Amino acid sequence: MPYSTATIATTIDKINQEYFLPAIQRPFVWTPDQMVALFDSLMKGYPISSFLFWDVAPENKMNWQIYKFAENFRFGEVHNEIADPAGRKLTLVLDGQQRLTSMLIGLRGSFTVKAKGKRWDSASAWQRKRLYIDLLVDPSQIPKSEDTEDDIEHPYGFELFENVPQSGPANLWIAVGEILNYPEPGRFDAFVEGTLERLPPTRNWTVVETAKRNLQRLYDLIWVDQIVSYYTETNQDYDRVLGIFVRANDGGTKLSKSDLMLSMISSKWTDISAREEIYNFVETLNSRLDRKNDVNKDFVMKACLLLSDLDHVYQVKNFTNKNLEIMRGNWPHIQRSLKRTFQLVNSFGIDRENLTSLNALLPIAYYLHKLDLDLLSATTPFFVTNAERIRRWLIAALLNRVFGGTSDSTIGAAKNTIASAMQGSKDFPLGELNTALSRQIKRPSYIASETLEGIMELQYGSRQMFLLLSLLYDNKSWGSTAHHIDHIFPQSRVDRKHLMKNNVPMSKIEELVSCANRIGNLQLLVGAENLEKNNATFEDWIRTRDHSFLAKHLIPEDEHLWSIMMLPRFVAEREQRIRQKLSSLQGDPEFGVEAAE
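-> structure tokens emitted (597 positions)
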């Protein structure tokens, strides 16, 4: 079948009426800048590549889960609304979703974006914007900068605004989507006349002609020019269509393994929408637990293999029809196990801010899957001790980067060790895991003398610093109360300028500054206590604490070390205590014996 062409207006009218997205499509991922660049290319007459559609036969359209294009999009969303194919001609877009969605948002919808510097969870951080064009911007009339050898033309005046922008002597703004209101040339001419009347009386001929030319160009590219070139596949063989989809998307926004795996699952899990199930579950893990996490589809799909006792290597060959059937049967249990895993590690204070390897959670998920218990649901010795075993093992594994790089063999060794150990005991096999993984990675996976000094070199700002500091305290639950990483001697007091102002010799300044961000000068404080401390001098503030505070935070009792000039000796003394504390954690939390040989 040859390629066909259509106008943008005709194409936009068919989106979410005839044109929909298959489950194999990824979410909309373009940024506002990419959308603006597309409209600029259209105005300049640049080619925007062809599109690939699939006409679904009437007898097959109820077999597929389909989704609507995003029209009012919030940046970062991963969901598209499910559509009902009943009673309509169905054409699925295999290639071109990002471009078509951008056209739809620019002409009919909105793009909600986060303001810079504001928190993601703040309602005031989000601004719903629409696309406008300044009709007085003519790229051909703007001279190129003499400072650059670029031949790239200046862009047209497209911009997103939350509120209607004010026009003036140098600007004439219209919403780009207004052009859809004037399909007939006569009505369009009246619109042009009314728009030009908004120009000030002092306008000159050049300004009027620029506005008219831009309006006419916008009208032509939407209503007249056959810009959308597309090929329509009619073959109903799903495997053929899947192959076409992968080929078509190979050069665009990267097609992840999970996109392909999800497409395969969507075709086999016929009783539920695999896409909705997995996207909703990822969102639950990321946004609906006590702490925020950063989980992706790939992790969930890999966990499906591992927890189903299948070959866990994340390759297409392992997503056979038989394996997909096994995974579908296990799906409710897999969800339960993964949710319990994240709830448990979140209770340790571990979340998207400091979890440096998602793969490190897979052995924990496998253990909880086999155990089928929630370790946070009771305070019996079994529950408490095994939660602590998991906490110590996980933090040591993260600090030692046990699951860095290609970790399939490490995951496999952990899985086999857990499966073997649980044949005789329900306890988390801390010692056995450390032995097996140390053998696998050819270095200790636990905190040992060989790894301790490297760990002690971590500095303030490292994502691992909270993990390391949390091991120093008897507190086992960090998820319920916010804790801050605090500089014992405040940063402001160990600042180079502050020290120079106080006439500290330069050689001493270098020594003091080098100690400021070391672990020996860091502690964990409850948020309120840290704010209370603020930048008070340590020797004054510490005298307001009781004696137990010193022991809890491993602070030297020698008051001579509490002055700023003694910071290097203070840090050295405290780091020695930290080494001793960390070394003591090599034992099993219940029996106090070595958990790794």
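Residues 592-597 have pLDDT under 50 and may be disordered.
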